[in-house]
Design a protein that fits this description.
This protein is α/β, with parallel strands linked by helices and 269 residues long. The protein folds into 2 domains: 199 residues, Alpha-Beta Complex (2-enoyl-CoA Hydratase, Chain A, domain 1); 47 residues, Lyase 2-enoyl-coa Hydratase, Chain  A, domain 2. It is 49% helix and 16% strand. It is built from 12 helices and 10 strands. The strands form 2 sheets. Strands 1-2-3-5-7-10 form a 6-stranded mixed beta sheet, sandwiched between helices. It has a 4-stranded mixed beta sheet with strand order 4-6-8-9. β1 and β2 form a beta hairpin. The protein is globular. It starts with 10 loop residues before the first strand and ends in a 10-residue tail after the last helix.
């Protein structure tokens, strides 16, 4: 993985001020996910998740689309050439680990959605913690439109974003959900003019990267835990997370800054 964006590669990776920017860069194919792109994307998100110098991740794309999901030109050939087991191994090999890394990395992940995000492309955005959309962007679950169920974590993330009934509706009836409707439904945290997307999303990621990384990781873990545990178990887990973050240097420094009436500086430890 390179340290800077490289237009010759399907995925760009750049690290600056503790923000890892991962860029889909197959604009001629609307950032469709062929095998090479999926391999590179998995490597990038897993690298960012594991790197302690990365304190926030920004997932974005070049061109007029964010990502239209699986590259169907490649897929139609694979339907004839591969066994079902070989063909659908891509879910376990690519889509599942990409979604897992985005949803569980111990740092915030922000999607900057510049255009249409469909199928696995939409699911990747849903797996991020926050979504900043250009006013020209849109979502489309797409899967049922080609006779498929859903992947890349959509069955887990979408109901948590919009509720069970609305998630079923969006998955049963694939359609274009524009940026304004996405914000109303809870699929977008911010909608900004298209020409300011990079600046606005970069600012969000930058603020998160300068924040209390351990606290963000604990909050992320606590919300995921509480989704599958009862109140009593969730309260016990909250106590454990408070003890862990309460022993961090960031907490000590922030309390000292409060007493001294100055703005705290966090270092992610």
């Amino acid at each position: 993985m390179t340290g800077t964006n490289d237009g010759a590669r399907p995925i760009g990776y750049a690290l600056s001020d503790h923000v890892a920017t991962i860029t889909l860069q197959r604009p001629e194919a609307m950032n469709a996910l062929d095998v090479a792109t999926k391999d590179a994307l998995r490597a990038a998100v897993e690298q960012a998740a594991a790197d302690p110098d990365v304190r926030a991740v920004l997932l974005t794309a070049t061109g007029r689309a964010f990502c239209v999901g699986q590259d169907l030109r490649e897929h139609v050939d694979a339907l004839d050439q591969l066994s079902p087991q070989e063909l659908w191994s891509t879910v376990a090999d690519h889509y599942t680990p990409i979604a897992t890394a985005l949803a569980t990395m111990p740092k915030p992940a922000v999607a900057a959605v510049n255009g249409v995000a469909a199928g696995a492309g939409a699911s990747m955005a849903f797996a991020c913690d926050l979504r900043v959309l250009a006013d020209t962007a849109s979502f489309n679950t797409a899967f049922a439109g080609i006779g498929l169920s859903c992947d890349t974590g959509a069955s887990w993330t979408l109901p948590r974003l919009v509720g069970h009934a609305r998630a079923l509706d969006l998955l049963y009836h694939p359609r274009s959900v524009d940026a304004a409707e996405a914000e109303r439904l809870g699929l977008a945290n911010m909608v900004v003019p298209a020409d300011s997307l990079a600046e606005e999303a970069g600012a969000v990621a930058g603020r998160l990267a300068a924040g209390p990384t351990l606290a963000y990781a604990a909050i992320k873990q606590a919300l995921a835990y509480s989704a599958t545990h009862d109140l009593a178990e969730s309260l016990v887990n909250e106590g454990a997370q408070m003890a862990r973050t309460g022993s961090s240097q960031d907490h000590r420094d922030a309390v000292a800054a409060f007493v001294a009436k100055r703005t705290p500086e966090f270092h992610g430890r």
